[in-house]
Amino acid sequence: MEFAELIKTPRADNVVLHRPFYLAVEGTLCLTGHHLIFSSRRQDNAEELWLLHSNIDSIEKRFVGSLGTIIIKCKDLRIIQLDIPGMEECLNIASSIEALSTLDSVTLMYPFFYRPMFEIVEDGWRCFLPNEEFELLSSVTDEWRLSCINKEFSVCPSYPPVVIVPKSIDDEALRKVAMFRHGSRFPVLSYYHKKNGMVMMRSSQPLTGTNGRRCKEDEKLINATLRPGKRGYIIDTRSLNVAQQARAKGGGFEQEVHYPQWRRIHKCIERFNILQESLIKLVEACNDQSHNMDRWLSKLEASNWLTHVKEILTAACLAAQCIDREGASVLVHGTEGTDSTLQVTSLAQIILDPRCRTIRGFESLVVREWLQAGHPFQQRCAQSAYSNSKQKWEAPVFLLFLDCVWQILRQFPCSFEFNEQFLIMLFEHAYASQFGTFLGNNENERSKLKLPQKTMSLWSWVNRSEELSKFQNPLFEANSLVIWPSVAPQSLQLWEGVFLRWNRPSKFLDEAHEEMINIIKYNKELQAKVNALRRQLAQLQTVDRMQENL
Amino acid sequence: LEFILTTKQEQVKLLDRFSTSNKSLMGTLYLTATHLLFIDSSQRETWILHHHIAAVEKLPLTTSGCPLVIQCKNFRIVHFVVPRERDCHDIYNSLLQLSRTAKYEELYAFSYNPKQNESEQVKGWQLIDLAEEYKRMGVPNANWQLSDANRDYKICETYPRELYVPRTASKPIIVGSSKFRSKGRFPVLSYYHKNKEAAICRCSQPLSGFSARCLEDEHMLQAISKANPSNRYMYVMDTRPKLNAMANRAAGKGYENEDNYSNIRFQFVGIENIHVMRSSLQKLLEVSGTKGLSVNDFLSGLENSGWLRHIKAVLDAAVFLVKAIAVESASVLVHCSDGWDRTSQVCSLGALLLDSYYRTIKGFMVLIEKDWISFGHKFSDRCCQLDGDPKEISPVFTQFLESVWNLTEQFPQAFEYNEAFLLQIHEHVHSCQFGNFLGNCQKEREELKLREKTYSLWPFLLDERKKYQNPLYNADFSPELTLLEPNTVSFNFKFWRNMYHQFDRSMHPRQCVFNLIMNMSEQNKQLEEDIKELEAKIKQRNGQSSAVPVKEHQQSAHPAPVALKTPPSFQKEQPLIPVNDAVRTIEGSNTADNRYSEFVAEFSKAEPAVVSLEYGVARMTC
């Protein structure tokens, strides 16, 4: 298919662009296969807007006489309006945008066409490989092994080719366990807590069904992670009720009789359309400036967004607490083990492991616990808050995770190497990107799409010093402690950087932030200078003393 | 002292206010003449000023003892458990007596001795000079003059002696107008805007009933509008909801009839009365004090309390006032019922938005002295300084501070002062430790001889100004008389956690960027000094390299953080947000603080061995 077929009017002049808090700008609108480009084309104050079609969540058109108006709502929650003279042009442009923003073939997406204009220092596709992770692990414990059982994605389609499992469990047993777990997602290592050797594993639900099927290998596998005489916790991210209902569909949960050394805790974390609805309602509330106080608060409440944030954080804190405080190992799962499970395991690591609070460590976490672990990004992030499609598989699972990270970052602003912008950037790229990182739903699909060969990795771009400097937190000071966030409602806040980003002028806040950074920079300069002068003085003094002694 | 039935009580438990598992600290409780003191087993002190106590409640006896809950005016809530009921009863009765004062002379301010000599005391009181302030605004001038009508408080007891009025308002007009205004509070100048030549005036409601009018009052308003050469029209802002104002007519009060006054534009702005505000705050505190609160209960409680709606209403009113002056150059007369609550809020916030001087530390003190203290906001009644009518209590001033805090959040560089300054002022409005806020009006304060018998708060705050300075403040951000235009869309108003949970440290960020930046910018000044000094020394040495070197004390590579010197007596009851920490403190290493799950409680019973409850506070030096 040629993109040209979809673009009947590639260019329109005298288009007026409206954005909140900016003056309207007149200019030229161009459509390419992947971008909507608006340029004011003025010599003195050229303004350009490049918008990826894949970033467009929905579009509306209106006509007043022959003047058409297109309202474009983006996945990053921005809303812009274009006034286009000429009914035909406007209709053409609208239908092109509609078609180009909803391409159904992944290989037509921009990452397959994008040619980077920067020098690649380090190929992001080759970073964060499971082997490296395992090497780190091997240096502290020999109780685990790398299994290549899934090399051809033959055992579990949503797992990566290699996984870390207890050494005492052989591949044959793993195969049996895979049969006993939803989507074959058998328990694998998610995190090893060096401090006390406790571990966090994740899986999908066991397929116990109504007649209480059991699997000796499964029991053996997870028991293999326990210390003698110690107990473990299974954190089921569903309510007991939901977990019980799952039995009717062949799923279920670990029965006490068969797992006597494990205690099950149910923590209800919502999924799918409930989350999507929540996002839609929240964004609706944030976008309406006319709400009076009562309405705003009741809309914020009705969205339930912060309730989800609190639930997820609480479950993650609980997992971390079991590991660090109770000295117990933990297994986390929900139904498929691809959504709420990953929220919990990844947040728990941020709480427990200082490495995950560095930029590289966080990237590695996203790769391990989201991309390789098989969170279906392509399905979940197909649409954002303005979608009308209401597909069951669309859900802001990853955005919620980022929101939770932001909440912890706010409470421990010096303990993270990255800043809020880094999280916002990940949100944007998960939904629309020139990079291939978040395409596909799992490693299996990614390898079929040959993403590493055909597209650029987000990490190749981010991990260059020019880009990194934007995402570094000037206050960062490595903190080796476990950080326990407060989950009281009074401590949780609306993530303004995402949800109010386009709804209020941020000039004063930005300037204040800049000033803050200046103070920090100045402080470092002064410190350096004082130290240099002291050294100089000390040298002079030694010279003097030597002369004196002579 | 005769009230203190027991001065020391051992084996008292201090419960964590929000803990679902009844986590507690064991310690000893002391009652002194002025404070309640609790020292826990790790020697941490909790000081509570008796005047700060809003309510003491004795709960039914439990197996572990007799619970005693103390609610403070600074929103601290402490929950003690005293082993024996009789002892608890004694403490309860003592506190009841100690926290209720019948006479001003028994308030802490009259016994508080900060070791200042007499001349320092006098100088302290002279720090804020309102005559000087009016001069700064540009009055008296061709249109405005100082009136001596109220020199002996004969016309209005609750106004200050010195009042500024239009030159054309003669004494008979003033007298006539005052008789037509509730409590004699006739229209006077509150703020004069030099560039626009427009004024903010304030008064109380007219005694208009359904049809009464008063020529002098009409003249008075005309005089105000004529005093403004740029715009003959003036606004009259009634800050009450229209319904309330109409109801007042039945009692012979009410609002201005536009037909009777020439050139006025009348406007209601709908701020609720003191009773609505009191119960709103009550509801807010009930919600925020709930154990195991869910997000939705918090948000719906916040909504139902109406608190943020009221804060928005106050700020919206100020924005309206400011627009009239800044855009139309029109003068504005503001009133409510008596003109000492809502009127003070709106006039002071309006001035704060218009004039950057009030966004400085000194300027903010002046603003409070002018619009709140001198114009007779009834601090004593509103803050319940003496045992009195509970229906007079209302958080009107707290709302003013909260509105200012909201502005500092929107304009982080426009204010010289920080949140700690606002919290400290709030603390002392209720502490009765200084004379400034005692009593209801200036006349009363003079009768109490506060200037001789007590101390002024302001010099103490200025001494500690390092703690209250906003490191991001940019004086150029708002040159003089530059308008702040706040955005009052609902989502900009946030729950003020640092006010209402000031003492619930587990709820706050464990690392505070603001304090860090504050310390850093303080350290920067010190470093600049160090550099100068070092450079001078090096220069000196290079110049006299052959001379006999002076043995110098080698300094350490890292400069010591600047210690803040303050009188200890002023320090002790102010934990506030910990602004003086030069180290980054990471707290919350105890998961039980955070109440993730009730399961810990259940579990620890089954397996007490696995639950570790050490309280870890990690410290990292800067």
What is this structure, in a nutshell?
By secondary structure, chain A is α+β, with helices and mostly antiparallel strands.
Q: How would you sum up this structure, described in words?
A:
- Chain B: One of its GO terms (biological process) is phosphatidylinositol dephosphorylation.
- Chain B: One of its GO terms (cellular component) is cytoplasm.
- Chain B: One of its GO terms (molecular function) is phosphatidylinositol-3-phosphate phosphatase activity.
- The complex is a heterodimer of chains A (550) and B (622).
- Chain A is an alpha+beta fold and 550 residues long.
- Helix content of chain A is 41%, strand content 15%.
- Chain A is built from 20 helices and 14 strands.
- In chain A, the strands form 3 sheets. Chain A has a 7-stranded antiparallel sheet with strand order 4-3-2-1-7-6-5, with helices on one face. In chain A, strands 10-11-14-12-13 form a 5-stranded mixed sheet, with helices on one face. A two-stranded antiparallel ribbon of chain A has the order 8-9.
- In chain A, helix 4 crosses helix 5.
- The longest helix of chain A has 43 residues.
- The mean pLDDT of chain A is 94.
- Chain B is of the alpha+beta class.
- Chain B is built from 23 helices and 16 strands.
- Chain B has a 7-stranded antiparallel sheet, with helices on one face. A 5-stranded mixed sheet of chain B has the order 10-11-14-12-13, with helices on both faces.
- In chain B, strand 10 and strand 11 form a beta hairpin.
- The longest helix of chain B has 31 residues.
- Chain B is globular and about 70 Å long.
- Chain B starts with 7 loop residues before the first strand and ends with a strand.
- The C terminus of chain B is likely disordered.
- At the A-B interface, helix 8, helix 9 and helix 20 of A face helix 9, helix 10, helix 21 and helix 23 of B.
